[in-house]
Design brief:
mainly beta; 2 domains; six-stranded mixed beta sheet; five-stranded mixed beta sheet; 4 helices; about 15% helix
Length: about 270
């Protein structure tokens, strides 16, 4: 009976921008030197269900391979590039401003918790390393210690979606003005406004904003907001009140920042 080979190590990726079970497009690729070692010793990275695993494709015992790499070849670490299938990764991820590269290292992690997942903490850099988004360095002595204790080597890398203040600019193209406009939803999010504003192109608009409530971006955008013509005498929503059912969701590529550093997602809506 064939048994599934045990990975030399694995990295589990999670990102709140994507719903549970959805491929978040993150993977590891060895750098040039590490790739040469992988080819020599029959190692390969496979990514499935948001987990990147290093497996031996030759069937050799990985612990023996590690011993040889460490003691004979004096290899200290494997180095990888972190790749994303999504061009906007740095846009929809909650990162310090001006971040161009994310770095992870296993060096600073003690091995007492050998039976649990190890959550790695990032370092941020403003120098771009395109076409990849980050660097991952895995020290061989670390995983050797864990494997020698018959434990699983599983690192976790977690990302959160950026949270922004949503702003809707409503531009009416009809001749008759609409009064008592408001934004409603089934979520506990209240939009402030509207207030009259002038856009850079001199157009007049009504501005709604989520105010101090910052809303996380999501690939499927579960937050559905409606533009309604509200009546002070009857605040109940019905089909006759809808001006737009399902307002647009913001693009991760169109985020600006106010003077206080708050991320803003502006959207133009024509009615």
């Amino acid at each position: 009976m064939n048994t599934k080979p045990k990975p030399l190590f694995s990295v589990k990726w999670s990102h709140t921008y994507f719903n549970e079970g959805i491929d978040n497009g993150l993977s590891l690729q060895p750098d040039v030197y590490t790739e040469k070692l992988f080819q020599r010793f029959g190692l390969k990275i496979f990514t499935d269900n948001n987990v990147s695993s290093c497996l031996s494709i030759t069937g050799d015992a990985t612990i023996d391979t590690l011993e040889y790499l460490i003691n004979t070849l004096r290899v200290k670490s494997f180095k990888f590039q972190i790749h994303s299938n999504f061009d906007g990764f740095l846009c929809f991820t909650n990162l310090p401003r001006q971040t161009k590269c994310i770095s992870y290292s296993t060096k600073d992690f003690l091995m007492e918790l050998v039976s649990s997942r190890i959550l790695l903490q990032p370092s941020y850099f403003q120098k771009s390393h395109a076409p990849y988004i980050g660097i991952f360095e895995l020290f061989l002595e670390d995983i050797y210690l864990i494997l020698s204790k018959k434990a699983e080597v599983l690192y976790e890398v977690k990302y959160e979606a950026i949270k922004t203040q949503w702003q809707y600019f409503i531009i009416t193209r009809g001749k008759s003005a609409i009064t008592n406009m408001s934004i409603s939803s089934n979520y506990h999010i209240k939009f402030e406004g509207p207030i009259k504003v002038e856009l850079p192109n001199k157009s007049q608009a009504l501005k709604f904003t989520s105010g101090s409530t910052l809303i996380p971006l999501n690939a499927t955008q579960p937050n559905q907001f409606n533009l309604v013509n509200s009546n002070k005498d009857n605040e109940e929503e019905n089909s006759n009140n809808y001006l737009i059912k399902g307002l647009p969701s913001p693009s991760p590529y169109k985020i600006s920042y106010d003077d206080g550093g708050t991320a803003i997602s502006p959207m133009l809506v024509y009615i």
